[in-house]
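Lab notebook, design round three. We kept the backbone fixed and only want residue identities now. Task for the bench partner: fill in a sequence for the structure below.
Input structure tokens:
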């Protein structure tokens, strides 16, 4: 997809939009959403009922549309949202029908997401994250207002970016060294919807092929072990509130109880092989990309007298081996002790790096 090439070098404003324009940009987009969906329904002849299953025939139709050289009739005016940064530089040379298709499919995809997501509700917003400067800043995003009103959105995604990339993969020239993910796959939008819902923390039974669990098989959680005496003793030494870094240093909204931490740590093992898996929701309480010799979680595991080997085998996974065969309770207590040590070390480094 040709997203347009500006005549002058791009500025930060071009890429992220201007905050003083956000209110009008959001107004224009919200006014465009029902208009775009109505256009999409007329053009495709499909019943767009805001269900996930409607995305399959919609994308199958869009694939055919994108392959046409003679573009069908398009409204004479380009949508007003395309005139605003950060989208204006991408749409200068884009064919009008493809431009309408891009915005309309993104609008409908977003509305299907909103209809499928659980409470609290998801809303369209201009993303302005006060502590993160990233490529999504200034984009039209979907997020939960309960988080946005606290000034610290936890999770969001940008339908225009996702659909733009998906159209780009569909229309790009074939390169055998860089395969086009989802090319000619009518299920692509359906799959992307559920993947995004999963990232939002939604329960998504519709995903046909869930990600494989890491080895060893971590079927239980530390939460199940909290009442065991050894684990209860380790719990007593944990912080009262675990802090999510870096945002949570001054924000109650980014702190967690020990129960919340343990619920999102999978734990398992047998025959002297043990492991934990940290889910995304709490991983930022203990991981701050410290080098191995400063990885307090790993070093705590290695310091245990029964541990013969331990490794941070993946970003979310720690594994270790032991002599003899310690009890599951003792190894769960070790895991919780190691997590608490990692929280303390990560918090100390974050405090040391704060500007004074």
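Proposed sequence:
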């Amino acid at each position: 997809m040709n997203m347009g090439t500006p005549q002058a070098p791009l500025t930060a404003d071009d890429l992220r939009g201007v905050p003083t324009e956000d209110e009008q940009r959001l107004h224009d987009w919200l006014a465009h959403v029902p208009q775009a969906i109505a256009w999409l329904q007329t053009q495709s002849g499909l019943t767009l009922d805001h269900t996930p299953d409607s995305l399959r025939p919609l994308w199958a139709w869009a694939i055919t549309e994108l392959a046409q050289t003679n573009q069908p009739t398009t409204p004479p005016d380009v949508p007003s949202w395309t005139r605003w940064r950060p989208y204006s530089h991408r749409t200068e040379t884009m064919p009008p029908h493809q431009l309408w298709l891009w915005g309309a499919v993104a609008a409908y995809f977003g509305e299907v997401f909103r209809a499928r997501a659980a409470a609290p509700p998801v809303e369209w917003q201009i993303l302005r994250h006060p502590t993160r400067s990233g490529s999504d800043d200034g984009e039209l995003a979907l997020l939960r207002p309960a988080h946005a009103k606290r000034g610290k959105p936890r999770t969001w995604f940008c339908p225009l970016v996702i659909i733009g990339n998906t159209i780009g993969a569909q229309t790009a020239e074939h390169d055998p060294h860089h395969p086009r993910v989802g090319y000619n796959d009518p299920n692509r939008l359906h799959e992307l919807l559920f993947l995004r819902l999963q990232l939002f923390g939604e329960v998504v039974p519709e995903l046909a092929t869930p990600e494989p669990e890491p080895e060893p098989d971590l079927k239980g959680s530390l939460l199940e072990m909290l009442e065991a005496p050894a684990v209860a003793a380790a719990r007593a030494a944990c912080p009262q509130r675990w802090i999510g870094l870096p945002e949570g240093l001054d924000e109650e909204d980014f702190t967690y109880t020990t129960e919340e931490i343990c619920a999102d740590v999978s734990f398992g093992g047998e025959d002297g092989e043990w492991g934990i898996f940290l889910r995304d929701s709490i991983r930022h309480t203990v991981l701050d990309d410290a080098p191995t010799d400063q990885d307090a979680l790993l070093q705590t595991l290695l310091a245990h007298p029964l541990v013969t080997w331990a490794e941070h085998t993946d970003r979310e996974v720690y594994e270790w081996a032991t002599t003899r065969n310690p009890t599951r309770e003792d190894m769960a207590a070790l895991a919780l002790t190691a997590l608490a040590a990692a929280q303390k070390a990560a918090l100390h480094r974050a405090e040391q790096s704060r500007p004074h």
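Keep this in mind before ordering anything: DSSP finds twelve helices and ten strands in the chain.
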